Amino acid sequence: MYLKVRKFDAAFIKLNQKIFMPIIKRLKQLFSFNRRPQPKGKIPICRLCKVSVADKKNSHIVPRFLTKSLFPENIHKTLAIKGDGSSKEPQDTPKEDHLLCTACERRFEILETMYAPIIRQIHDYKVQSEKFEHIVEGQKEYLKSKIINPVSFRLFIYSIIWRLSVCSNFEFECMKLNAKIEESLRGFLDQNLQDTKKSLVEHLPSIATYPDYHLCLIKPKIKTNPPGGVLSAYSEKQTHLIMLVDFALFFITDDKSIIPALAEFSNKGSRSVLIGLGDNEEWIKLNRLLVHKMLNKG
Ligand SMILES: [Zn+2]
Q1: What is the CA(50)–ligand 1 centre distance, in A?
Q2: pLDDT at 157 (0 to 100)
Q3: Spans of the chain, pLDDT less than 70
Q4: What is the pLDDT of residue 283?
Q5: Contact, 184 vs 211, CB < 8 A?
Q6: Is the pTM for the entire model greater than 0.90?
Q7: What pLDDT does 74 receive?
Q8: 128: which residues sit within 8 A by CB, 6+ positions away?
Q9: How far apart are CA 83 and CA 29, in angstroms?
């Protein structure tokens, strides 16, 4: 888990990590998954194309533009807390060597370059009414995008979920898809990601089918600064929660596991991309709850 805290809190957490360690070890046992580490000494094959050598070093697991508000400035520190209770102060978003080949890394970059401005526009939805319809129905509040291609949205979201599941990064050790779903996302990404923006834009209309699961993307109504959110990911059976600092992403792979409050924002079967809006107070509470769970404070 990555979180941004005041310098004083960072020192406090580091001081107390020995106390929390046994509790966190137990949490790790509860949530640990087998990760099949790559054999040492030999560069493995790219996890996406399964053809080329995974020569790329420092592949981002989560696009940097989603996490950059976590990183350094004067009065705050970023802490990465491991499953065994130890912590460190990373300077950048989680990366991994030898996960992908250079060509596949490039294919992810093309998609991410396309999505960086879209994510900014989502945060600015109040002045982007030509791009997002802001809908309020009783307690339910959400954005309906007029510009996001639903197929490219799946590519973008699945590209993050798949990397979280296949990486060996300790920060994401509590997140793992089952093998069949992981492979369905890999196949979809490998078949459809392109090596230039032009070819991706031209290719999108020809994609007839995609793996269609419940995807619920929720953000606080007002972007918090400094970020009140954490970077982390958890799996519990068919429900996967991915905290992306300013967004919460629920990925739920069966219909029985989705609760009604989330189903309202599900993009499964939807032809328009929906983004749920939550109250800022609830947003902070959810993130605090996750931090406290990790540290077992409450
Ligand atoms: Zn590759």
Answers
A1: 6
A2: 98
A3: 5-40, 72-75, 82-85, 226-227, 294-298
A4: 82
A5: yes
A6: no
A7: 62
A8: 121
A9: 9
CA of 109 to the centre of ligand 1 (A): 13
Residues 4-19 have pLDDT tens digits of: 766 656 665 555 555 5
**Residue tagged 């947003």 (tokens):** 283
What is the whole-number distance in angstroms between the Cα of residue 52 and the centre of ligand 1? Answer: 5
CB count, 10 Å around CB of 168? 15
Q: What is the pLDDT of residue 297?
A: 45
- Alpha carbon of 55 to ligand 1 centroid (Å): 9
Write out the two tokens for 88: 């460190």
> Edge-to-edge strand order for the sheet containing 132-137?
87-88, 76-81, 2-6, 231-236, 239-244, 248-252, 214-220, 274-278, 140-145, 132-137
CA–centroid distance, 187 to ligand 1, in Å, is: 12
Distance from Cα 190 to the centre of ligand 1, integer Å: 8
Contact call for residues 106 and 191 (beta carbons, < 8 A) = no
